[in-house]
Amino acid sequence: MGSCEVWDVVRLPFPYTNRPVHQYRPALVLAINNGTGSPRLLWVLMVTSAENRGRPGDVEIADLAGVGLPVASVVRSAKIATVEMDMAERIGRLAMPDRRRVIDAVRDRLSVAGICNY
Predict the structure, then answer these.
(1) Per the domain annotation, does 1 fall within a domain?
(2) Which of 55, 62, 70, 116 has its CA 20 to 30 A from that of 48?
(3) Where is the secretion signal located (predicted)?
(4) For residue 89, what are the domain limits?
């Protein structure tokens, strides 16, 4: 565990905002803190089953085999977390067409928040 790159799908204990627990689940690595300090940190987006109720900003993953997921899944752009890289286990990599849709969804989220207007 602990080695991954941007656009990798990893398995890690994802924190919940509404309860003090973590559940092992897939997540998409969006950014890596490459600073010299310890620990190295990842910004990740939650990945969840497409069967769950959809939310604005969800991005369907078209290439399931490439990301190592057994069921139809979505990247949930509204659920972002910062986690230690040592906790992440790489399971796959997001395909380029799916990456573009995730970038658009994140850009839309930031634009709505007034952070990014392009």
Answers:
(1) no
(2) 116
(3) none
(4) 8-112
Structure tokens that stand for 33 in this block: 């803190």
- Is position 3 within any domain? no
pTM reported for the whole predicted model: 0.85
Buried b (16+ CB within 10 A) or exposed e, 18-51: eeeeeeeebbbbbebeeeeeeebbbbbbbbbeee
Residues 59-102: pLDDT tens digits? 999 998 889 998 999 999 988 888 889 989 999 999 999 999 99
Determine, yes or no, domain membership for 117: no
User: How many folded domains does the chain comprise?
Assistant: 1
Task: Report the candidate in 112, 110, 91 with the shortest Cα–Cα distance to residue 47.
Answer: 91
CATH number, position 42: 2.30.30.110
